[in-house]
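User: Please run a holo structure prediction.
Assistant: Happy to. Please share the sequence and the ligand.
User: Here you go; the ligand is magnesium ion.
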Amino acid sequence: MNYEVVLPAAGSGKRMGAGKNKLFLQLLNKPILIHTLEVFQNDPHCTGIWLAVKPEERDYIQSLISQYEITKVKGLPAGGEERQHSVHSCLKEMDEVDIVLVHDAARPFVTQQVIDKLVQIAHEKGAAIAGVKAKDTMKKVEDGVIVETVDRDNLWAIQTPQAFRFDLLYEAEDVAEKVGFLGTDEAMLVERLGHQVYIVESTYDNVKITTKEDLLLGEMILKQREI
Ligand code: CTP
Ligand code: MG
């Protein structure tokens, strides 16, 4: 089953504190952005990549794309103030496809197996997102005091990719924009429409490179995969 992918890449990387978009930082031999792009470049079922970018970074990103011979990029629309706006600006430029994946450009370690499963379930059910079971004991805290120990069995930490039938995500983003609703992921917008979203068990190493510590972790993950 073929799909196209939207990669929001228009953030500022404030928590990384590198003074530039964290996606341009090197992980071992390549920029983080390229590691992520190569996952989809190398998946034969991915037929198009859409990158939301800051307009002032578009030329530089174009040059990286040519340097690393990423040939599937179909467009680089301008990102927005929030990640949700960046995703929306890509959807608005795309021609209708069956399945669309949304994936943080800052998560270079997603596995092919997880992508395949997400695409399959999204095709069958409409919406599927990647996540991992919570490992730690989870408690609800108010004003610094434990209110409740939450049953961990039902708790998942949510990642990307998130996969949808294109028309479903398009409608969800459209409605959210019209009513001014801002979600923390795409699934939230689809949930608001009353549509069921399925979970696909992912890997704990599908981390989002967010802070300096994640760069070290990322290099370890890459080295271990090279063995
Ligand atoms: N992103 C985007 N548009 C925004 C904000 C974020 O396209 N307005 C992208 C980022 O480039 C990243 C992904 O969404 O690939 C996940 O966001 P996050 O990890 O929070 O990255 P940043 O927003 O860049 O980092 P920070 O929040 O620390 O500033
Ligand atoms: Mg952010």
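The radius of gyration is 17 Å.
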